[in-house]
């Protein structure tokens, strides 16, 4: 579980750094709507990543104690994505749908990147 915590921390730090960069880019570039959409998509991605991590931790604990195995909250994560897309579609001059779509998988990509850049001895 230690390696998973390390991966989660790395993803959180990298995502926070990206969110700060995207926020700066909102004010420095003429592509304000795209970077606002990217901020929304990345924020939803971070929420979904942390929510999945928390639900998987609960599933592991329930399996270890012999309790009923609960789901991983897939419907909740899908609804958050749909809500973000509805917001982006409702305000196209403020949020670009393409930016939201680019931001949605970022935490999962960073998680894979973090896993493969971690030395094999620490992976677990």
Alpha carbon gap, first and last residue: 8 Å
Number of domains: 1
**Outline type:** flat
Structural class computed from helices and strand pairing? mainly alpha
Low-confidence stretches: none
- Sheet-strand content, in percent, reads under 5%
Q: Please state the average pLDDT score.
A: 90
Number of helices: 6
Helix amount: over 70%
DSSP E strands, number? 0
Membrane topology: Multi-pass membrane protein
Protein name: ATP synthase I chain
Organism: Shimazuella alba
Subcellular location: Cell membrane
Structure report:
InterPro entries: ATP_synth_I (IPR005598), ATP_synth_I_Bacilli (IPR039072). Keywords: Cell membrane, Membrane, Transmembrane, Transmembrane helix. Pfam families: ATP-synt_I (PF03899). It is a multi-pass membrane protein. It is found in: Cell membrane. By secondary structure, the chain is an all-alpha fold. Helices cover 81% and strands 0% of the residues. The protein is flat. It has one domain (2-123). Helix 1 (2-28) packs across helix 5. The protein is built from six helices and no strands. It starts with a helix and ends with a helix.
């Amino acid at each position: 579980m230690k390696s998973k915590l390390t991966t989660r921390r790395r993803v959180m730090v990298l995502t926070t750094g990206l969110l700060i960069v995207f926020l700066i880019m909102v004010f420095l570039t003429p592509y304000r709507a795209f970077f606002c959409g990217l901020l929304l998509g990345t924020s939803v991605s971070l929420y979904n990543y942390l929510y999945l991590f928390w639900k998987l931790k609960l599933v592991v604990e329930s399996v270890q104690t012999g309790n009923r195995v609960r789901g991983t909250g897939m419907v909740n994560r899908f609804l958050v994505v749909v809500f973000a897309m509805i917001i982006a579609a409702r305000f196209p001059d403020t949020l670009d749908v393409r930016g939201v779509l680019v931001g949605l998988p970022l935490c999962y990509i960073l998680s894979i990147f973090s896993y493969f850049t971690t030395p094999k001895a620490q992976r677990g």
